[in-house]
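ok trying again, last paste got cut off:
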Amino acid sequence: MLAFEYKVNSYEVEEKEAIDCLKKYNYELAKEHIYNMMMEEDSFPEGHNLLGIMYELQGDLDLARKHYRASYALDQTYKAADKNLQRVTSFQYIFKLEDIDYGNKIYNEEYNLYKLVYDKRNIGRLLKR
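nice, full thing came through this time. structure:
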């Protein structure tokens, strides 16, 4: 009989705890969990993204932008940092709690906003779906 051992990934546990603390506005405990994440895996973008969220919730947009940029620099495919950075650097920035991306949203890569349509002269144009 095979025995399976389930090893709990402390990085994921710390990330979930940090997100819960941020949603409850407990910044000191959130910072402790984020620093534990970053000490375990300093090359992952999630820690800087969560620090950016913490500073944005506190109203320090300069530090939030710096951490979102650091998160994006570590991994350009990490959608949460990209969305948060675009939102915070926008000229029409308005703080909305529901717009914050903690990194736990699932994105459908197959969904496209545009489709390619060819006319009679074989010229392709992008049309919104």
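cool. The first helix runs from residue 10 to 23. The mean pLDDT is 87.
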